[in-house]
Amino acid sequence: MSAGWLSGLIDYGVIGLLVALSILVVAVSLERYFLYRKLSIGSFEDIKSLELVLTRKLSVIASVGSNAPYLGLLGTVLGIMLTFYNMGKDAAMDTGRIMTGLALALKATAVGLVVALVAVVLYNALLRKVRVLMLEWEIANGRKTL
């Protein structure tokens, strides 16, 4: 039985999914940013309809930010399983190959953390812009906030 499929799953499955999610986060963030720049808040009759437009798709960014580390951890667990499998199969495995296998297993966690950090930073920046736009609407419409 070969464990090559597991190595492919880690490299192309987990890390590929994390890269795709990071592209999705950047694309949604750019779409939201450009929408916020051209949006006319005066065209909204009430603040709830404004909030619906402003917060649409932000949950995608938040979900990626909160779940990317877990996907990376899954890749690391699979990589460690692969290293242990190879250790058991090759009884005369040297320490260098073991350490290399474990180090490469951690790359999935590193990628997951990077994706999560980018997503959380973008989410927080967009959420701040949402709050500012809503406050501007309230000021323009004579609403008092606490």
From TrEMBL:
Membrane protein topology class? Multi-pass membrane protein
Record flagged with keyword Cytoplasm: no
Q: Name one Pfam family in it.
A: MotA_ExbB
Q: Does the keyword Cell membrane apply?
A: yes
Q: Where in the cell is it found?
A: Cell membrane; Membrane
> What are the MotA/TolQ/ExbB proton channel domain coordinates in residue numbering?
47-138
Q: Which InterPro entries match?
A: ExbB/TolQ_transport (IPR050790), MotA_ExbB_proton_chnl (IPR002898), TonB_ExbB_2 (IPR014172)
TM spans (from-to)? 12-30, 58-84, 104-126
Mostly located where? membrane
What's an example GO BP annotation here? protein import
| Gene Ontology CC annotation, any one | plasma membrane
Which keywords label this protein? Cell membrane, Membrane, Protein transport, Transmembrane, Transmembrane helix, Transport
**Member of which family?**
Belongs to the exbB/tolQ family.
Protein's name in the database: TonB-system energizer ExbB
Q: Which organism is it from?
A: Syntrophorhabdus aromaticivorans
- As recorded in Swiss-Prot or TrEMBL, the protein's gene is named exbB
